[in-house]
Design a protein that fits this description.
The protein is an alpha/beta fold and about 600 residues long. It is built from 15 helices and 23 strands. InterPro entries: MeTrfase_RsmB-F_NOP2_cat (IPR049560), MeTrfase_RsmB-F_NOP2_dom (IPR001678), PUA (IPR002478), PUA-like_sf (IPR015947), PUA_sf (IPR036974), RCMT (IPR023267), RsmB/NOL1/NOP2-like_CS (IPR018314), SAM-dependent_MTases_sf (IPR029063).
Length: about 600
């Protein structure tokens, strides 16, 4: 617990040192960054009852801002923390981060003055995590919020570029402004011009939906008649240099549109840096992998694995020994997992395209081992035959011979339609799904009780991700749909894990209906499940109690004594993380 308190103090110091004092900007309140999240009234009332009005107001403000540091996970199978720190410091120096990452101490009392943590902060912009077992996690300090002088003069507003809300959120995390994110631009902007960058947030349209009501390519005049003129007050995210003219911005299909060199929040960008050696990942996600406590030689399932951050973290904790099955229902997302695993040289990860709601394979289904054998045999011979076509091989005969051999060797029956399909592949090439580096295996599911540990990092409302500038589309009904879907996925997880095994459930949302309410459902539905302690424990306790909706429906959360078994990461806490939730279950005898 002392180490956990030390981490809170460390990150609090990083947060404090990241806030710099700058001269007051121009008198206009327009050209600043002071966003306000506009919640659906029913959703706001729900969260106020969960957190209290004052606390929820603080959470909402925290959600509009990025963390004051980047969290980097080192691939300990390929490098060390010290080696990575040395390389990152050199990269920061080369990119000219102009010393901002050292930060200027803010005013007020520093709780860490004179402590070893305070001394470590003086050593540079990159700090090792102090929690035992997490020494391979690095914190890279940033700075902000900065007040920027946009050069406003009454009657002569600065040249501007309006970007989409999603683009603005990415910029606040350290990205550049790319061409697809540009919505509108001032007239006469030329390459090299300095432009103010503001965000256009979705507004309610007459049909009841939400949209950015700006035609891409709109010309800005700097007048109150400009699109979203008043709505963009307090939504200026920085200043940059146009990399192309106004005409080029809307002719090009890709590339950097604005080089952001004066940001409200400044974090070093490590995009495409030290691939395979590091992975940028939020601290709670790393803690989730540790909570699962994977062991070498075990069979582990990551049910919703894309993009692969937690999957690779688990594989490294297993020392790349055992079997880690990673699932996603999207072909492209499965390929992303494969790519990341290859970059990190991890071999214990097996990926499948599969909808997790169909993850259970009943014992009375036909076994597909022989089918896979014959399929693999066909695949090998297809490659061989297609590479030998120029030598005059008879493809039809080759394919038929391969099928005959597969059946004689114990394989299952292959239909004529399958043979014709195989012939076409042999003539025309393997296609995208079978190309080297692009093959994605489908799965028919897995037998019950076939995994030692299961991670369900469930798709959720994502109301803990930051920075977030828009929540208007979130409704009570949409939150209920997420919760229903998560329960169905959890039911699958319970069936797939063996007695004596472990389930870890996590989300990146502040919604108790998807967090504590899921735990209540799990414990009430499956009597053989019990909450287990987690290590390390650096998050806060869960929410105890319940919520009664206006229609009389009661949503039960945790009961007294259960709150200390889960970890709830509050985005407004001194840890300065995203909003996150972790629950760990021990699985007893299912005969009970």
């Amino acid at each position: 617990m002392k180490k956990a308190r030390d981490l809170h103090l460390l990150l609090k110091t990083i947060r404090r040192s990241s806030t710099t004092t700058t001269p007051k900007m121009d008198p206009s309140d327009r050209y600043c960054f002071s966003p306000i999240l506009r919640w659906n009234p029913e959703v706001e009332n729900y969260f106020i009852k969960a957190y209290g009005a004052d606390h929820f107001s603080i959470i909402s403000k925290a959600l509009t801002r990025p963390s004051s540091y980047s969290c980097v996970r080192v691939n300990t199978l390929k490098s060390t923390s010290d080696a990575v720190i040395e390389k990152l410091l050199e990269i920061i120096k080369e990119k000219g981060f102009d010393g901002d990452c050292h930060g200027k101490e803010g005013s007020g009392t520093n709780e860490n003055v004179g402590s070893p943590l305070e001394e470590s902060l003086k050593n540079g912009p990159i700090v090792k995590c102090q929690i035992p077992g997490l020494e391979y996690v690095l914190f890279v300090k940033g700075t902000g919020p900065h007040m920027i002088d946009y050069g406003y003069v009454p009657g002569a507003p600065p040249k501007e570029v309006i970007v989409s809300r999603k683009c603005a959120e990415a910029v606040l995390r350290g990205a550049q402004v790319f061409v697809p994110g540009v919505m509108a631009c001032s007239a006469h902007v030329e390459k090299g011009d300095t432009v103010a960058v503001s965000a256009a947030i979705e507004q309610r349209n007459p049909n009841g939906g939400w949209a950015i009501g700006i035609t891409r390519g709109t010309v800005l005049q700097g007048l109150q008649t400009d699109p979203y003129y008043f709505e963009r007050n307090g939504l200026y995210i920085g200043q940059g240099t146009a990399t192309m003219s106004r005409a080029g911005l809307f002719r090009a299909s890709k590339g950097i549109a604005v080089d952001m060199n004066n940001r409200v929040f400044r974090l070093p960008s490590f995009y495409d840096v030290l691939e395979g050696e590091i992975f940028l990942q939020n601290l709670p996600s790393i803690v989730t992998a540790h909570a699962l406590d994977p062991q070498k030689g075990e069979r582990i399932l990551d049910m919703c694995a894309a993009p692969g951050g937690k999957t690779t973290a688990i594989a490294i904790l297993m020392k790349d020994e055992g079997e880690l099955v990673a699932l996603d229902r999207s072909h492209n997302k499965v390929q992303d997992i494969q790519k990341l695993a290859a970059e990190m040289s991890l071999t214990c990860i097996t990926t499948y395209k599969l909808d997790v709601l169909k993850a259970i394979r009943q014992r009375n289904e036909a076994d597909d081992i022989n089918t896979n054998q014959s399929s693999n045999s066909l695949w090998f011979h297809e490659e061989k035959a297609s590479s030998s076509t120029a030598e005059g091989f008879n493809l039809d005969k080759t394919c038929e011979d391969n099928v005959s051999n597969a059946i004689e060797n114990g394989g299952t029956y292959v239909s004529k339609a399958d043979i014709r399909k195989a012939k076409r592949r042999m003539r025309n090439g393997p296609g995208r799904n079978q190309c080297v580096g692009g093959r994605v295996e489908n799965s028919k599911g897995f037998y019950p009780d076939s995994f030692d540990r299961v991670l369900l990092d469930a798709p959720c409302s994502a109301l803990g991700l930051r920075p977030r500038l828009f929540v208007g589309e979130v409704t009570i009904d949409s939150l209920k749909k997420h919760a229903t879907y998560q329960r169905r996925m959890f039911d699958q997880a319970v069936k797939l894990v063996r007695p004596g095994g472990v389930i870890v459930y996590s989300t990146c949302t502040i919604n108790p209906g998807e967090n504590e309410a899921l735990v209540r459902y799990a414990l009430d539905t499956y009597k053989f499940l019990s909450l287990a302690s987690q290590n390390p424990r650096i998050g806060g306790p869960g929410l105890v109690g319940s919520f009664e909706s206006p229609n009389g429906r009661t949503e039960e959360w945790l009961r007294p004594g259960e709150e200390e078994f889960v970890q709830r990461f509050d985005p407004s806490s001194s840890l300065d993380t995203i909003g996150f939730f972790i629950a760990k279950f021990s699985v007893g005898s299912k005969d009970v």
